[in-house]
Amino acid sequence: MPERDDVLPSIETWWPHLTVGARHEVLSDTTAPLDDRVVREIERICDTRIEHRPRLSDDDRHFIATQGETVD
Questions:
Q1: How far apart are alpha carbons 13 and 38 in whole angstroms?
Q2: How far apart are CA 40 and CA 55, in angstroms?
Q3: Could you tell me if 56 and 26 are in contact, meaning their C-beta atoms sit under 8 angstroms apart?
Q4: Which of 2, 23, 57, 58 has its CA 20 to 30 A from that of 12?
Q5: Close Cβ partners of 36 (under 8 Å, ≥ 6 residues apart)
Q6: What does the pLDDT read at residue 2?
Q7: What is the pTM of this model?
Q8: Helices 20-28 and 36-46, packing angle to 10 deg
Q9: Which residue has the higher pLDDT, 44 or 69?
């Protein structure tokens, strides 16, 4: 089965490397489609291409919630 191009790589791979601004953008509405700027950062971090504006999964939101660090 081909990979869907609107599915995010594993959040454990890219979340720790997002810029503070991108993290703030994600956290502003964790149920909305990701902003193009955030998607471009994820593509750069993971060396992949994402054609559509994906949304965080329930697991992604849970991962973010369990990260103890504060986003400045």
A1: 14
A2: 14
A3: yes
A4: 2
A5: 53
A6: 38
A7: 0.83
A8: 130
A9: 44
Which residues touch 14 (CB under 8 Å, ≥6 apart)?
A: 8, 41, 42, 45, 46
DSSP, residue by residue, 2-64:
PPPTTSPPPHHHHGGGS-HHHHHHHHH-TTSPPPHHHHHHHHHHHT----S-----HHHHHHH
Q: Which two tokens stand for residue 70?
A: 């504060």
Distance CA 66, CA 24 (A): 16
| Structure confidence at residue 51 (pLDDT) | 84
**Residue count (the chain):** 72
Task: For 6-64, write each residue's pLDDT tens digit.
Answer: 579 999 999 999 999 999 999 999 999 999 999 999 999 999 999 888 999 999 999 99
